[in-house]
Amino acid sequence: RVQQWAVSFSKDIAALSARYSGAKLLQKKYKDVESVVKMEEVDGEELVNKFAEEMEGMLGRKMKSVKRLAEAAEDADLYHEFNETLEFDYYNSLLVNMVDEDGNPLSLGGEFPLEENEHFNKLPVNTQLSNIQVPTNVYNRPDILNGAYMSEALNDVFIDNFQKDPTLTWQYFGSSTGFFRLYPYIQAATSPKDVVIVVDVSGSMKGLRLTIAKHTINTILDTLGENDFVNIIAYSDYIRYVEPCFKGTLVQADLDNREHFKLLVEGLHVKGEGKVKKAMKESFKILNEVLGQGSLCNQAIMLITDGAMEDFQDVFEEFNWPERRVRVFTYLIGREMTFADNVKWIACNNKYYTHISTLADVQENVMEYLHVLSRPMVINHDHDIIWTEAYMDSVLFNTQAQSLLLMTSVAMPVFSKKKETLSHGILLGVVGTDVALRELMRLAPRYKVN
């Protein structure tokens, strides 16, 4: 009986498989095209070797492009003579293709054609130009200006690399002085973001501290573009919006609003005791309310203060944990560290902290460790090619929609070749390019390996 049941069960399974597997339909379709389709036996080892060879060639082209950039950057620095008073004409990326009320290009703006490019996610770019990005707290110091001027030599190499290998995506040079040269030129060079700037205007922020705080706010505003949204809250005994009309919301960071904010910030004055807890709670509330309406959830709070006397861990617990969706950047102003513990607590739990003693010291303090750690490698001129681990990168499309893409990057250090710097081991920066892993997958299509 067991044997009969097993035979019967096997027949049932076979019948079900034939019915639902689609085997009969596949056989019928094959007969329909049998006259024009042929079957070939494939050597699996040969196929894999071919894929490997093609991938090696593609990755090799990426490495050659990066090597050309490194050589060009080192040669440009070798023949560049540092000029403490260097001045040269340049365009402000945030003002390009913008006009005044009379339709004339803004000062430092200029007109540059931007065309949607399929290769760069249909973003409007100019493949004949690169642009310099300078982060918050970095400004037009002599070393920045000299570096920007020197690295113009990379522009021709960027273009040549792209012509030799059209599969290249973004190419870049990250300088150890703090700026970033990116090719091709893109007007919306950063992802859209919602930013709330929170500034301490209590009595302890008087004098130079307030001056530094205002400068910090202005440099943050200068990093924003028309796709970003922003507001500024000042706090002491109470909180107040620097522009009452914008209370409880975010406004587009276009040129007019940025300049309007700068004028209002210039008029800030100090008074009273600093109570940051209410200001932080208000900032989180704004970002929560505009979630999905502003800049696609890329949100940040910029806290500028000389110290935080209150314990406000419960604010983070209520509004930002456990996801930590909102990134909090803290800028501690002044030389004294009396009330810094709570600001440091924010930094430890939100990953970003800067101590600003003077207008000029941020650059040196942040970047000095990089030179110290890299010195042995620089002296030996170890031009190691580095491939990063695969990572998820946020890709911006011209529709302002965002998506995650699996990427890897190939990078190489750039050293000073000047005789007077060899014993010091000067790292000029890093050059690199991104590689989407989907480019590798295209070399081994599924229909060939299944």
UniProtKB/TrEMBL annotation:
Question: Which topology term describes how it sits in the membrane?
Answer: Single-pass type I membrane protein
Q: Where is the VWFA domain?
A: 194-373
Where does it localize? Membrane
Q: Which InterPro entries match?
A: Ca_channel_alpha-2/delta (IPR051173), VWA_N (IPR013608), VWF_A (IPR002035), vWFA_dom_sf (IPR036465)
SUPFAM superfamilies from the UniProt entry: vWA-like (SSF53300)
What UniProt keywords apply to this chain's record, in alphabetical order? Calcium, Calcium channel, Calcium transport, Glycoprotein, Ion channel, Ion transport, Membrane, Signal, Transmembrane, Transmembrane helix, Transport, Voltage-gated channel
One Pfam family linked to the record: VWA_N
Q: Give the family from UniProt.
A: Belongs to the calcium channel subunit alpha-2/delta family.
What is the protein name given in its UniProt record?
Calcium voltage-gated channel auxiliary subunit alpha2delta 4
Which species is listed as the source?
Answer: Seriola dumerili (Greater amberjack)
Lineage here is: Eukaryota, Metazoa, Chordata, Craniata, Vertebrata
